[in-house]
Each structure stands twice: as C-alpha cells, then as structure tokens.
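Sharing in case it's useful to others searching the archive later.

Someone asked me privately for the predicted structure of Bacterial sugar transferase domain-containing protein, so I'm posting the question and my answer publicly. Question first, with the sequence:
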Amino acid sequence: MTKGFLIVYTYQGIMRKNDLFFSLILVPLDSIMISGAFLLAYLVRFQFEATALPSVKDLGASEFTAEFIYLIPIWIIIFAFLGLYKINIVGKRISTEAIKVFMAVSTSVLITVIVLFGIRSTEFSRLLLIYMWFFAITLVFLERVIMIMLQRALYKKGVGLKKVILLKNGGKLEQRLENDMSRPNTMGYKLINVYSALEITPQKLAKVIAKEKPDLILQTNTKQSEEKSIAIMRVCLDRGVEFTFVPNLLNIIQTKTELADFFSTPLFIVRGSPLEGWGRMVKRTMDIIGSLIAIILASPFFIIVALAV
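And my answer, the predicted structure tokens:
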C-alpha cells in the first residue's frame, strides 16, 4: 500500500436509505430556495428600488410568476447535471458544495439570459438577474449547509450509518482507519467487524454477509491474487453490498481516479468509466457543460457589462 494514501476501486451496490433520502429531498428544497430567490429579487427590484432605479418593464406579480415559474425545473435539471444530487460515498464537504452551488446557479442564470433575451426576446430589468444570481447562491448554499450539518448530526447519533466490514493485512494506515470507523463520526460509516484478507474466502464471506448484513466491504490487501479479489467482489455485488479495494499500480494507470478525504486520509476512488449507451451520452453532455465553465465563471461579469451598455 502506498504510504499516506489509500487507493480504492468502488463498486456501488444498494445505497443506504439515509443517503438516498437526503439526495431526493434536496430536489424540492432547491425548488423552494430558487422560488424564494426569484421572489426576493422581484421584491428588491420592483418594490424597494422601483422609484430610485426605474425599470424598462415593470412586471406585476402575476406576470412575473408567469415569466419565471417555468425556469425552476430547468434550473433543477442543470443542478442535476452538475452533480448537486449525486450520492457521495465519502460524505459531502461544505467547501466542495459551495463551489458546486456557485457553478450551478451561474450556469442557470446564463441559461436564463439565453432563454429570455435570445429565444423569447423578453424585455425586463437586467438588474433583476443579478439579484436572482445572488439570492439563489445564498439561499441554496445555506440550505445545503443545513442539510449537511443535519446529516452529520444524525451520523453522530448513529442514524443511517453504513455498516462496514474491513478485510485487512495489518498495515498502520489500516489500523488508523479501523480506529476512526470504530468511533462515532460524521462520515456515515460504522465498523462492525474485521477479518484477515488472507484468511477470508469467498464462501466464508458469503456467510459473513448473510449473518452480519454489511453495507460495504473494504479490502486493503494489495498482495491478494486478482482471481480471489474478483471472486470476493462478485460475492458482494450479487448480494447488493458495496465493494471497495486497493488496486495494484496497473489498475491505477488504466483507470480514472478521484481524490477524496476519508477520515482525514487522502483517498483515491478509482471508478470505471463506461462509454457505451447512456454512459456515452452522459459523457458527451458533461463535456459540453465542461467547455462552458469559463463562460459560467465569467457570467456575472457579463451581466454587469450588459447593464453598463
């Protein structure tokens, strides 16, 4: 095992209901926050500033609702494409969530500009878009922080934890992970048993899974044969259990890696990248979105420039 790093493959089986619940509930909550951002932007622009800064087109409440209500599902779809509803296997970090929210809202505002000005040729206050952008980032981010803190609090209380079985070979890093997962934590994992990776067999593991009902098997033995690792992986997947293991160097070179923080330990999650069928379509879509990142980051400045013209 590389010192200081844990490098793993992750094959996701059935996710804990707690994770799924928190991902699903974000959709209606985001819709409420987006609606709130639209409402605040409307009130600030057309109620509080109407006299000081006259608008090109003064929208009434009903007219404003008709113009903008259909944008909410479009924003939610953009949020989904940018990974705001992704179920993370190592928990969510507030700093990462802040970046995602900023990019998602900025992209959504940019699409709103394209729809209103490019397609529908709607005339209204451009300053309204800046307020929408600001309030949406603020409200959605605050909502995400509250949900992350709530989920972490539930984890500390032992609610919704993933039960983990560790298959190890006695390294120091493994001992640290074992200690961290044995204590109450905010990562959402609970170590329920430890077995020697050299002694465990696929047949024995099948009996262990049936008896202890884990959600995840974490194998950290790099010296185990590929045949045995594949057999153990199949036992896990056939029973709907997530399987995580340390690959050899060849696996790392051939597969994409993603850096994550796992109990303050740098961790590489290595996932396969299927490029057939839906996988290819999703990849192409994400490539297009990725090419717009530079425009996304600059979109608030474009709006400011538009106001000045």
